[in-house]
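Message: Study each token:
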Amino acid sequence: MLNENIVSSSIYYYDQENITESQLDFRVAIKEPQYDQDDIKWLYTAYGLVDGDPLAQNIGHIKTLKNRCITFPNIYQHKVQKFELQDNSKPGYRKILCFFLVDPSKRIISTATVPPQQKSWFDLELRKSENRISKLPYEISDLISDEREWPMSLDRAKYHREKLMEERKTIISKETKELFERPFSLCEH
């Protein structure tokens, strides 16, 4: 999403058990090439394009192995290929950690200037400080805490994360159709 100013992404595959091999596929959007009308053979020879093909170039893949960190620029679209349990009678998992590099020329809010926002930490600090709330019984201060909108609770944070993920899915789907799956057309108009 443009407002995030992310220029690069990294995915660290730090643990996995009982899953089959998988990979990340990458592609990049391309612009429609210049060509002479009806020069179909040249378009296929030079670009591998035929009428109706998506204007995207597959640029390769990499295996997603344990203890591997994969980093790529955000102009690439990536897709995790399917994987499954090696042994269906046992549980399996893959654990990843994602990092996003924000354009260093853009100013962003940082944890250097924003205090921790976990509600439990905030409540603990309120109880330790010399104020009226700290003198109340925990049951009462907890009721007051529940009525405060800031900092948000873990449940509220999870709710907002789900909304964000849904928003991202919609935008990525639209972006995929407009950038990576728009068809090449030999039509004159």
